[in-house]
UniProtKB/TrEMBL annotation, chain A:
Keywords: Cell membrane, Membrane, NAD, Oxidoreductase, Quinone, Translocase, Transport, Ubiquinone. This is NADH-quinone oxidoreductase subunit C. Residues 31-149 form the NADH:ubiquinone oxidoreductase 30kDa subunit domain. It is found in: Cell membrane. It comes from Candidatus Thermoflexus japonica. One of its GO terms (molecular function) is NADH dehydrogenase (quinone) (non-electrogenic) activity. The lineage of its organism: Bacteria, Bacillati, Chloroflexota, Thermoflexia, Thermoflexales. SUPFAM superfamilies: Nqo5-like.
From TrEMBL, chain B:
Gene3D superfamilies: Cytochrome-c3 Hydrogenase, chain B (1.10.645.10). Belongs to the complex I 49 kDa subunit family. It is found in: Cell membrane. Pfam families: Complex1_49kDa. One of its GO terms (molecular function) is NADH dehydrogenase (quinone) (non-electrogenic) activity. InterPro entries: NADH_Q_OxRdtase_suD (IPR001135), NDH1_su_D/H (IPR022885), NiFe-Hase_large (IPR029014). Coiled coil: none annotated. The lineage of its organism: Bacteria, Bacillati, Chloroflexota, Thermoflexia, Thermoflexales. This is NADH-quinone oxidoreductase subunit D. It is a peripheral membrane protein.
Amino acid sequence: MSIQEVVEAVRARFGEALQEVIEFRGETTLVVRRESLVELCRFLRDAPACRFNFLSDLCAVDYWPDRPRFAVNYHLYSLPHNLRLRVKVFLEEEDPVVPTVTGIWPTANWHEREVYDLFGIRFEGHPDLRRILLPEDWEGHPLRRDHPLVVEPVQFSFNWREIDSRKPYVKE
Amino acid sequence: MAIREGEVQEFTLEQLKHLVSERALRGETILLNMGPQHPSTHGVLRLLVELDGETIVSIVPDIGYLHTGIEKHCESKTYTKIIPLTDRIDYLSPMSNNLAYVMAVEKLMGVEVPLRAQYIRVILTELQRIASHLVWLGTHALDIAAMSVFLYCFREREMILDIFEMVSGQRMMVSYFRVGGLWRDVPEGFEDAVRAFLKLMPSRINEYERLLKRNPLWLRRTKGVGVISPEDAIAWGVTGPSLRGSGVNYDVRKAQPYSSYDHFEFDVPLGENGDVYDRFMVRIEEMRQSLRIIDQALRRLPKGPYITPDRKVTPPPKEELAWSMEALIHHFKFWTEGFSPPPGEVYHAVESPRGEFGVYINSDGSPKPRRVHFRAPSFVNLQALPIMAKGCLVADLVAIIGSIDIVLGEIDR
């Protein structure tokens, strides 16, 4: 079983919904429409030609300022066939919602929570969509490209007083 | 709900009602907080444990106390400067993290690594595996009240750290691998030090095994505890010794060999029952297999360059800077601007001591990556903890946490 046969099987089954197949450095990426993501994932897991029963990783990318802005990557691995495959879904900035795959691979649970926490992409139908790494009252989603990298200014003798006055702790 | 500094965030039952059983809502079971400051959670892991008497009904893990934003930092650094950050993800196996990251960049750049560098990488990552397993064994045994093993394990780990210090100048945060090869060739005396370790270690592993394997206390604490079926383990994405303890034969080194792992003979030890004891036996056996790999790699260690001559990813040799203007300019540009891979994305996975450690890099063609993501095995393995611990006693929870060998630096990144 080779990755070409998997791509052919998916193309035959999904046709239009499969937007693009990218080959780069020996890795295959299937770009799919959001509407058929869950169906495609179920097909990839269950079809005898695919059997991608192991979700290695799930992560998001922010293409800001390009459009469409977000992408969610699913890194799949097939234990029976020893193949790797990446499934990719692009999302618009105004509508960062994607259906959950926790029903197919339970391991997606925390991965999706992490993406929600750090990118603000919502997963429809997720059983427990809370922030996972950051505290509940954190504002913003830090892994977005337009979120600033917070820099703490270095305190020297000439600006000690000014920086110290902005620090939150109680002064004597 | 605003949380002040130094406070632990409190959960309300309203927030967690979909995660705990209905009996907790009626007040029939107890919700117990464990951690984040707890000696046997191996870092700042917090668990909310629902108990019926002493039996665990459900667990809600709460992580993020050690979140350092490494992935965000990577976006503002050149590809070379990310290497030291990868040390800090899983601070017990920096070599494996370095390897995964530099191999992902090499894949992105299309760089060939000299055979000598590949072999040295194998030797060092396998030493790292042993060092990491020794910390695991020591702390795991300490959790279940076997004090002496801890002292022995740290004695042998010191030998490995000395070897790391010899090659990289650092004991823990090594940053020794570079894109295209290594930072320096290994120094004189390296091979002798590794040989001395290889000679000593097999008898020491037997010693640890003898201390625990047939110890009745150890058996009662580990046999049949924290069982996870192979189907569950795959569905929950468990990797590494925790997966192989359940009898699933998946080791990235065998399945998709990298860095010439296919040149060496080694077995993948498998468990049968998927309990704490099997995971313990798998790791003990893995240490022996690592010794086998190191021995073969050391015997066949080829001569040759330690880093690729491709000037795209390597700075020019120091002596060239004295007479070549171009080399000086290149040196300056390399360290200030960095190199620019072609636009695209790659995912590369290696077998770290804890499981599949993957690095995803998305490049936009500039010298800084658009996105770097680390697939941390501990993060995924911890997700399976509630399944393993369901129905066990609360005292077993300590043994189960120890058996999945988590590193919080990697979970929170």
